[in-house]
Each structure stands twice: as structure tokens, then as C-alpha cells.
From TrEMBL:
It holds the Pfam family Glyco_hydro_79n. Belongs to the glycosyl hydrolase 79 family. This is Heparanase. GO terms for molecular function: hydrolase activity, acting on glycosyl bonds. Keywords: Membrane, Transmembrane, Transmembrane helix. InterPro entries: GH, Glyco_hydro_79. It comes from Pocillopora damicornis. GO terms for cellular component: extracellular matrix; extracellular space; membrane. The chain crosses the membrane at residues 84-102.
């Protein structure tokens, strides 16, 4: 630790590493020094009083709070094993640091309960303020939709049973959009085949053949075929052009954002000239804020925002081959989503103000998922974090309140007190794994969710908690709590305003 002549800590060097870490979005926890009660015995030959170290810790905390994008998590003081001097130092530092914590942060209360077994159980109590009169944001009914990739379509072994399961899951999210994208969408062409019809889906099937990219302007001839085909049959398609255009160098292709903007204008022109086609265009489906993504988006929107009905971008928390199990539920990973949303919103607000923002493609992790993790119960934490308060069930009448909750602690239960709502019955939808958090099977209120005979969607049956304003969420679980008779004014008035 670099120190000034008066003995106080000099943060100049630490500030450099904090800034370095923040710019690269590394998720570090922090500590200051090592065994401070033991320094006078080392060759350095100096001592730091615990009171001075406590002031230094306050200085670190202040620095962390001021640097945007950094993980504000601080531990210490790392004293040696229990001896009298170490214990006294720890007590003095802990009192000062905790006092600073309580003054500067909204801390939950921690209660200790001793069950009959005699084993201590920790419950974290949190008050949830629900503002029933204020509308913060509004989502459309297609908010939760479906995305398939050409890799899925071309490589999966589709049959009557698997297709019926997929349709069942899609219907559960309806009304919704179905997007077909992914890397291979860059290399497919459309060709209608007469006489082929899928009886289950009730739609025509298409033969797809690949073609290499050619740098330069877009050739719309093949796209024109599918646009006319769709218009003739009255299908209601929405359109986009390309997939992750800022990330094409891995395929040996480069499309400048200005050229892509011209291509979007050309597609918009085609859509407007063909009778019966739905003239709705979204894009450019850039990757999340890493590397050149935001620069590409800026340059594209400068030239092409007038061609769009919505701005799309992609988001994944981490890459599948680089992730670990805890990353699926620790706040340090989940909190990166809000940071990315803010960064994209800043660009869109400047260059395409007023346009809706869409996740054109998203999931828990990229690269095809994480083997043994992303298709399991634990992935639900990432999905629910992404859905946030916009979760929409359609199970209850207007004016009901739906609270989505996640307990990310591996050991502590969470006691949630719902404030500012009357004492009404609460319907609980508690999701737990059938085993550990890597289980493929998920339980709803203790019952495993499984498709019934004929691939019918399972019934989501809540547990009714009579006249309650408190709920308890077990460790590493998630839940929806619905207050059907809340009559929230913001929801009722929002319904009246809808066209």
C-alpha cells in the first residue's frame, strides 16, 4: 500500500487499476492491504493504526462508488489469526466500516432464527415498496417472443412429437413473434416448393440453399421472392435484414454500417411497393456493447434510423465455453445487463430518439449454451432477471399485481414484506429444482412440471396465501407472487389509455 508521509493511504496507484478494471468490465471484488496488524514485524518496519486503516477503507469505498461500471464490493481487514491485538484491530475497523455502510447504503435486516432441530437458520428480511398509482413503463403484448436459429432447423431431428412440443410452447407465449436468425441465416436463400405442406403446422415448407457473401451493396432479388410469396398468402411477417453485421469478419466479410443503412432503405422501399405485405422493418441486430458494436450502431443509425420501426440488438451474459455455475446467479453477472441496456439506450436516444428498443436475439449464454448448465433450473435466474418486472402472465384480470422475485443467496431464506398493498390473498408460484440447481426438471410449488399426454401444456396451479403481505423465498429459488384483487390504479388507468 502506497502511503503519504502522514501515514494515510495514497490511492493514486489503486485508482489506476480501478479505472483499468472498469473500462474492461472485469468483475473484481476488492480489499486493501494484507495482515495490517503484523506489518511492524516485517522488513518494511512500519505500523498502521486500526483507526487510520478504517479511514483508508472509507476512502476506498468512496472511490469505488464514484467509478461507473465497477463492482462496489469491499472486504477486509485481513488480520492474522486470533490474538488480542488482531481482535482489537478487527473490532475497531469493523465498527467504523459498518457505520459507514449503514449511513450510505440501503441494507436489509438480517434475522437469526433457531428452528426446533437446533440448527441456526438465517433469514434476510427485505421490504418491497409497491407503487400502485404510478406507471413506470409499459410493454406490448408481444414482449416475450421466440427465436429459432437455422442451425436448429437444419440439424435437429424434427418429427411429429418434437414439432408438437415446440408448437405447444410457442402457443403458451402467444401472442408472440417467431424470429428465425442466427449465424447461418446469413447464408440461406428462399425457394418455394409446390405440393409440400406440413399438416401439423399448417404452413408451406421451404427448401433452403446456401450462398456466399459478396462485399458491396445488397442484392434484393431473392428477398423479393419471399416477400411476394408471403404477400400472396396473406401472412403477417415483420422483417429484418441480416444478423450481427458488425461481427461478420469471422466469415471473411465486411459490410460498412453506412452501406447497410442504404440496404435497409432499399428493403423499406420494396416493402412499401408490394400490396398486401406488412411494411414493418427492424434492425440492425448488432451484438451487445463489446468491441465495435456501439460504434457500428452509431454510424448505422446516423444514416438508416428513418428506415426502422424498432432498433434491435443482441444480449448474452457470458459465452458458454467460458462460464461457470455460480455466474448464472451471482449479482455481479446479472447486473451487467442493466449496464449494457444503459449503454445501448444512450446511443439510440442520441441517434434514433423515439424508436422502440428490442432484444432481437437473447438467451442466458452465447455460443450454443453451457453444457450441463444453460438448459437447467439455474438458467432461470438469468432469464427472470432479463424479464424483470415486465413479466406478463395474462392469468388475472386488469389491476392485479405480479411480483417477480429471485433469491440469489445459496444459504439464506428471504422474507419479503410487501408494502403499500392492502391485506389481500396472494397466489404463490414458487419454482424449485427437482434435485440441485443443475436439474433439468423444475418443480412448481413442489410438483414437477411436465407436459401431459399429447404434449399438452402443464397447468400452473398456485398456492393461495390468505390475507398476507409477507412471503418467504427459499435459497436459490425464484417465484411469482400475484395479488389478483389489488386493483392497482396505474394498471387500471393504463388499460383505459390503450388504443
Amino acid at each position: 500500500m502506497k502511503r503519504f508521509k502522514d501515514g494515510s493511504w495514497d490511492p493514486s496507484n489503486a485508482l489506476r487499476i480501478m479505472t483499468y478494471v472498469a473500462k474492461r468490465r472485469y468483475q473484481f471484488g476488492w480489499q486493501l492491504g494484507n495482515e495490517p496488524n503484523h506489518l511492524q514485524l516485517l522488513p518494511f518496519g512500519f505500523a498502521i493504526s486500526p483507526e487510520q486503516l478504517a479511514k483508508d477503507f472509507k476512502k476506498v469505498r468512496t472511490l469505488l462508488a464514484q467509478i461507473h461500471g465497477i463492482n462496489n464490493f469491499l472486504v477486509g481487514p485481513d488480520v492474522t489469526q486470533p490474538r488480542l491485538a488482531a481482535i482489537l484491530s478487527f473490532i475497531i475497523i469493523a465498527v467504523v466500516i459498518m457505520r459507514f455502510f449503514m449511513d450510505s447504503r440501503d441494507f436489509s435486516r438480517v434475522n437469526f432464527h433457531a428452528p426446533l432441530s437446533g440448527q441456526a437458520k438465517v433469514i434476510v428480511t427485505k421490504i418491497v415498496n409497491i407503487k400502485m398509482r404510478e406507471e413506470i413503463a409499459r410493454i406490448e403484448e408481444h414482449f416475450v417472443s421466440i427465436c429459432l436459429t437455422w442451425r436448429t432447423i437444419l440439424e435437429w431431428n424434427f418429427n411429429y412429437t418434437t414439432e408438437k412440443r415446440i408448437i405447444t410452447l410457442m402457443k403458451a407465449l402467444s401472442p408472440a413473434y417467431v424470429r428465425i436468425g442466427g449465424d447461418r441465416s446469413q447464408f440461406v436463400l428462399f425457394q418455394a416448393v409446390k405440393g409440400k405442406e406440413n399438416k401439423l403446422l399448417g404452413i408451406k415448407t421451404f427448401n433452403i440453399s446456401g450462398e456466399e457473401f459478396v462485399n458491396g451493396s445488397w442484392d434484393p432479388s431473392n428477398a423479393l421472392k419471399i416477400i411476394k410469396y408471403v404477400a400472396e398468402r396473406g401472412y403477417k411477417f415483420k422483417w429484418e435484414l441480416g444478423n450481427e453485421p458488425n461481427h461478420l469478419r469471422r466469415f471473411g466479410v465486411t459490410i460498412p454500417p453506412e452501406q447497410l443503412a442504404e440496404d435497409f432503405k432499399q428493403l423499406r422501399g420494396l416493402l412499401s411497393t408490394i400490396p398486401g405485405v406488412h411494411n414493418f422493418l427492424v434492425g440492425p441486430d448488432v451484438t451487445q456493447p463489446r468491441g465495435n458494436a456501439m460504434g457500428y450502431l452509431q454510424r448505422f443509425l446516423k444514416k438508416g434510423s428513418s428506415s426502422l420501426d424498432a432498433v434491435t440488438w443482441h444480449h448474452y451474459y457470458v459465452r458458454g465455453e467460458h462460464c461457470s455455475l455460480p455466474q448464472f446467479y451471482v449479482p455481479q453477472t446479472l447486473d451487467t445487463l442493466l449496464r449494457d441496456i444503459k449503454e445501448v439506450d444512450e446511443v439510440i436516444s442520441q441517434y434514433a430518439p423515439g424508436l422502440p428498443r428490442w432484444f432481437g436475439e437473447t438467451a442466458s449464454v452465447s455460443g450454443g449454451g453451457a453444457d450441463g448448465i444453460s438448459g437447467r433450473f439455474v438458467a432461470g435466474f438469468m432469464w427472470l432477471n432479463k424479464l424483470g418486472m415486465a413479466a406478463q402472465h395474462g392469468l388475472y384480470k386488469r389491476g392485479a399485481i405480479t411480483l417477480m422475485a429471485m433469491n440469489l443467496h445459496p444459504e439464506r431464506e428471504a422474507n419479503l414484506t410487501l408494502k403499500d398493498i392492502p391485506d389481500h390473498d396472494i397466489d404463490e408460484f414458487l419454482f424449485t429444482p427437482d434435485g440441485d440447481i443443475t436439474s433439468r426438471r423444475i418443480k412448481l410449488n413442489g410438483k414437477v412440471l411436465e407436459m401431459g399426454p399429447g404434449s399438452f401444456f402443464p397447468t400452473f396451479q398456485p398456492i393461495r396465501i390468505p390475507r398476507a403481505n409477507q412471503v418467504i423465498l427459499p435459497p436459490l429459488t425464484y417465484a411469482f407472487y400475484v395479488v389478483p384483487e389489488a386493483n392497482a390504479k396505474a394498471c387500471l388507468e393504463s388499460t383505459k389509455k390503450r388504443p
